[in-house]
Amino acid sequence: GAVVSQHPSRVICKSGTSVKIECRSLDFQATTMFWYRQFPKQSLMLMATSNEGSKATYEQGVEKDKFLINHASLTLSTLTVTSAHPEDSSFYICSARRMQGISEQFFGPGTRLTVL
Amino acid sequence: ELKVEQNPLFLSMQEGKNYTIYCNYSTTSDRLYWYRQDPGKSLESLFVLLSNGAVKQEGRLMASLDTKARLSTLHITAAVHDLSATYFCAVTDTGTASKLTFGTGTRLQVTL
Fold this sequence. Notes:
The complex is a heterodimer.
Chain A: E1 4-7, E2 10-13, E3 19-25, E4 30-38, E5 44-51, E6 57-58, E7 67-73, E8 76-81, E9 90-98, E10 105-107, E11 111-115
Parallel strand pairs in A: 2-11
Antiparallel strand pairs in A: 1-3, 3-8, 4-5, 4-9, 5-6, 7-8, 9-10, 9-11
Chain B: E1 4-7, E2 10-14, E3 19-25, E4 29-37, E5 43-49, E6 55-58, E7 61-66, E8 71-76, E9 85-93, E10 100-102, E11 106-111
Parallel strand pairs in B: 2-11
Antiparallel strand pairs in B: 1-3, 3-8, 4-5, 4-9, 6-7, 7-8, 9-10, 9-11
C-alpha cells in the first residue's frame, strides 16, 4: 500500500510554455501533498504544501504565480509551471501524507522537467 | 529555522568495510527519516526513528537516534556495491506537522 504516482515522468518543453505535473495517491486518501524540487547533485527543497480544498502554502522564495498548485481531491494534486524557463529545469517530486495513521510521507517517482 | 546537516557529503569506500554517516539537526524534532536515492530516481524510505535511543536495522544498514545530541547515524556494515547511492536524512519540525527538512545528502560509492 501507500503508492504515489506522478505523470509525466519526463517532459521537455520550449521556453515560455506551461507544464502540468500530476501527483496521485493510488491506494489511500491524502489530506496533504507536498511538492519538492531537486537540482542535480543537490538535496530536496520543499516548494509548497498542498491541502485538499484549500490554498497551497508556499515556502519562502517560491513564486506562487509561477508554480500553481491545485489539490482538488483527496487523491490528486497538480503542479503547473507557468511560462517555464531553462532555470526551471529540475526534478520535481511530490509526496502524500495519509489521512489516518502515522504522518509519514510517501514519495512519487518524480518528474524530470527540461526547458529548452 | 530548522537546519539539517550531513557528513560526509561524499564517501568512497571499499567493499567489506564499515562506515558511518552522520546527520545533525538544529532544533527539536519528533521524528527522523533516512532515505536512499538512486541516480535519476525518487526516494526510497529506509528508516523512521521516533524516539531517543531508537535503533533500527535492515540488512547491512543500521540507524540510530540521539535526540539530546540532535544526532542520527546511519551505519553501514561490510559494504557491498549495491549500497552505492545517495542517502538523505530528513527531520520533521515539531511545529509544522510532517513538513520535512532534508539533509544535504551523502553520496556513497562502494568500490571493489
